[in-house]
Amino acid sequence: MFRGVYCPSITLFTEDGRIDHASTSAHLDRIVSAGVQGVLVLGSIGEFFTLTPQEKTEITRTAVQAVGGHAQVLVGTADTDLRQVKALNQMAAQEGADAVVVVSPYYFGPSHAQARRFFGAVAEDSPLPVMLYNFPARTGSDLSPELVRDLAATHPGIVGIKDTVDCLSHTRKVISAVHPVRPEFSVLSGFDEYYVGNRVAGGQGVLSGLTNVVPEVFVAMDRAWESGDHATALEQATRISRLMALYDVGDLFIGAVKQAAQLRGTPGSATMRASDIRLEPEHVARIEELLATL
């Protein structure tokens, strides 16, 4: 169901912190026009943790309208309360999304037994296909290959995973564990530079932040890989690898990605709600330097 390149979209805000729906819509149009297979709104890079339920509904509606059926729309429905996750899943379905992306309950990470119960309850209630979201650096718990295999084997509504673990062997082990029981299960890497390794291991691609900045590079890489032109795919992967340093600029990578996207043509402000962090002039200069390497 999910294969290729997916963009976890940034959310654009005005300077005073209100959602800039017009700029968010224009950004999504830019990303989809580049040829990605789908977009995710309300993910980590979309600053879901700063948004009210009403704002989440509004952003979902904006995304569905902006994409207009030209790509898949995935909606992040993260929450520490299972009831809220279920409510957000229902909202995503009502607004016309294609799937939901559900992260492990964070702050107090669940045990594997509790994670099975949590995701099982989500899958049984969700009107949309469910993609797992593994981000142990933020949630405090890991979805192990064995756990993913068990969930995939037990719940047909769970159709894939975004594995945001900075260790390619983890994703490879997820692929090896789950595909014998669910060959169609999608395993996407959450780290941009793991596209090639993911595909070599039998995975389906990436759902990663730099697609906000250079979606055309990712699409060129994906199309080259699919056509068997591995030399071109590696050339594009090298460009992405050089740009990975963007994640280390400033106090929070979201701001750097927003600034880079703006420099590449996304309208609006690079303002973040998250922790009210701002980029310094030297950060902007470093981002410009990195973009120049493209």
Q: Would you kindly provide a written description of the structure presented here, covering whatever features stand out?
A:
The chain has 294 residues and is α/β, with parallel strands linked by helices. The chain has a single domain (4-215), classed as TIM Barrel (Alpha-Beta Barrel), CATH 3.20.20.70. The chain is 47% helix and 13% strand. The protein contains twelve helices and eight strands. It has an eight-stranded parallel beta barrel, surrounded by seven helices.
Provide a quick synopsis of the model.
The protein contains twelve helices and eight strands. The protein is an alpha/beta fold.
Overall morphology? globular
The total domain count is: 1
Which regions have little confidence, pLDDT < 50, spanning 5+ residues?
Answer: none
Give the distance, in angstroms, between the N- and C-terminal Cα atoms: 31 Å
CATH architecture: Alpha-Beta Barrel
Secondary structure: helix percent: 40-55%
Specify Rg, calculated over alpha carbons: 18 Å
Order of helices and strands: EHEHEHEHEHHEHEHEHHHH
Name of the top-level CATH class:
Alpha Beta
Strand proportion: 5-15%
Label the structural class: alpha/beta
CATH topology: TIM Barrel
How many separate helices? 12
Q: Tell me the CATH superfamily.
A: Aldolase class I
